[in-house]
Amino acid sequence: MKYRYTKYVGEDLDGLDLEDLVAKLSDLLLASGFGNPYGSDAEDRTMQALHDAILEALLNGGMLSDEMLEQLLGDPADADQADARSTLEELIQKLIERMGQEGYITTPPDLQPEREHRQGRSGRGPDQPPVKFEVTDKALDFLGYRALRDLLGSLGKSSFGRHDTREQATGVETTGAPKTYEFGDTLNLDAVSTLLNAVQREARTQHPAPSTLHPAPVSINVTHEDLMVVQGEYQSSCATVLMLDCSHSMILYGEDRFTPAKRVALALAQLIKIQYPGDALKVVLFHDSAEEIPLAELGRVRVGPYYTNTRAGLQLARRILDRQRKDMRQIVMITDGKPSALTQPDGRIYKNAFGLDPFIVSETCAEVAACRKDGIMINTFMLARDPDLVSFVRRVAEICKGKAYFTTPYTLGQYVLMDYMDKKTKTIH
């Protein structure tokens, strides 16, 4: 009887941090069409693409230590690397199965055909479509959480409360010592301090104490000067519409701008859900026209061969915010392109991608002014530095008294989150 001994890789490789792996696959899971600008997402969501992304994360992403890599792959000088390749393939297949079991992706019920296809033994014809996977809501929610944690960690922030005001006022939450009531303050009485003031005042003006044999009824007369109110911080609520430009320019010029924008939007949704549960967040995509999408579908959205109809996006965002009953209403617009399209009264789309069309610009600025009239602030996060475009964005900021940020896909998240947490305060006296 012959025994064959193979290299034992152990179950410790199965114990790889699956969450770290999913985070490293975020570019694939949030693919925006950058790798295939004119096609569908079939190439991005195939099992082969997932296999290659996991392989890259294992070998070059720091998922495995040098010792584990040596244990897994053996000596590179070894002429026979077939066993090492087979072991690595098995590990990747186990990780894919674990991702499916943990609910991060949905995979075909049987992965064996894909294994055979990868090994060249598949009997499928050349027209047979590749096996694809789908990203689940759990994966998108997790990627938003990781993006939020990474962004706040890079800013040195550990925790944040709700939108607190910068000044003490008689409001919702007690934060300081009581103060004497003044005209205009919210009548949020501090009963103990008020009664103590009344007792002390009466003690100073009281006549000699009555006989202890026949005590007089005790009564406390509270006057206006005795009133004390609790100081607090007013915690306001906010309704936000996140406008994302999904025109074709977001993936042109050798840079994917839309995937970082989606990652920031998911992080903002997590921030609101965790720290600001009273706030509302809606998402509007603007391209040739504009559409509102459910937040759960944000991670699956892709760019397309579209122009940039900024006015249509602002009109839809304003209608959405008009339905919100919040203290503050704002639009956060993330774009990299100039407005190049306009919806005419008859429904046709007027398009001009050459320069800043005066007609498109004037109509877009008129919509910005309408937002300002309705009390809606617009903050623009620009992913480009074209001089004409910078001038247009500054004009928008001046009209609506908002802010304009000129940033990059790498610093976009810090700007958006810090702006959201810092500026939305309202002082109530």
Note the run of SSEs as H and E. Answer: HHHHHEHEHEEHEEEHEEHEEEHEHEH
Question: So how many helices?
Answer: 13
Percent of residues in β-strands? 5-15%
Strands ordered across the widest β-sheet: 9-8-7-10-13-14
Task: Report the sheet with the most strands, covering strand number, pairing sense and barrel closure.
Answer: 6 strands, mixed
Q: Would you count the extended β strands for me?
A: 14
- The assigned CATH architecture of the largest domain is 3-Layer(aba) Sandwich
What average pLDDT do the residues reach? 76
Shape: flat
Given as residue ranges, the uncertain stretches (5+ residues, pLDDT < 50) are 3-10, 37-42, 157-174, 424-429
Kindly name the structural category: alpha/beta
CA-based gyration radius? 31 Å
Q: CATH class of the largest domain, please? A: Alpha Beta
Q: CATH superfamily assignment of the largest domain?
A: von Willebrand factor, type A domain
Question: Would you kindly provide a written description of the structure presented here, covering whatever features stand out?
Answer:
With 429 residues, the protein is α/β, with parallel strands linked by helices. The chain has three domains: 11-135, no CATH class; 143-163 and 236-423, von Willebrand factor, type A domain (Rossmann fold), CATH 3.40.50; 173-205 and 217-232, no CATH class. 39% of the residues lie in helices and 13% in strands. It contains 13 helices and 14 strands. It has helices at 18-24, 26-29, 47-60, 66-73, 82-101, 112-118, 137-154, 191-205, 258-275, 310-322, 358-373, 387-400, 412-423; strands at 105-106, 134-135, 173-174, 179-180, 228-229, 232-233, 238-245, 280-286, 290-293, 328-335, 341-343, 349-351, 377-382, 404-406. The strands form five sheets. It has a six-stranded mixed β-sheet, with helices on both faces. β8 (280-286) and β9 (290-293) form a beta hairpin. α9 (258-275) packs parallel to α13 (412-423), α10 packs parallel to α11 and α11 (358-373) runs parallel beside α12. The longest helix has 20 residues, at 82-101. Mean pLDDT is 76; it is low at 3-10, 37-42, 157-174 and 424-429.
